[in-house]
Amino acid sequence: MELRLVAAYSLMLVMTLLVAGFIAYRIYHGHARSYRRRLRKEARIQAGRHRGEPHP
């Protein structure tokens, strides 16, 4: 393969990986996911209070 083709394909690969990483970051830190995490944490705290355990 020519050097410029290798450079072009490498650039396309890097760009694709960056876009995939950005999308994964946005999904992981999305509002719905964070909200569900917060609700689960609050439910554990409430269940602990109901059982009489001290809050950490």
Protein model, in words:
This protein is an all-alpha fold and 56 residues long. It has two helices and no strands. The protein has helices at residues 3-28, 31-51. The radius of gyration is 22 Å and the shape is rod-shaped. The protein starts with a helix and ends in a 5-residue tail after the last helix. The mean pLDDT is 90. The chain crosses the membrane at residues 6-28. It comes from Sphingomonas kyeonggiensis. Keywords: Membrane, Transmembrane, Transmembrane helix. This is Heme exporter protein D.
The count of strands amounts to: 0
What is the end-to-end distance? Answer: 61 Å
Radius of gyration: 22 Å
Summed over residues and divided by their number, the pLDDT gives a mean of: 90
What does the overall shape look like?
rod-shaped
Q: How is the main sheet built?
A: none
The residue fraction in helices comes out at over 70%
Regions with little confidence, pLDDT below 50 for 5+ residues: none
**In what range is the share of β-strand residues?**
under 5%
Individual helix count: 2
Written as H for each helix and E for each strand, in order along the chain, the element string is HH
Structural class: mainly alpha
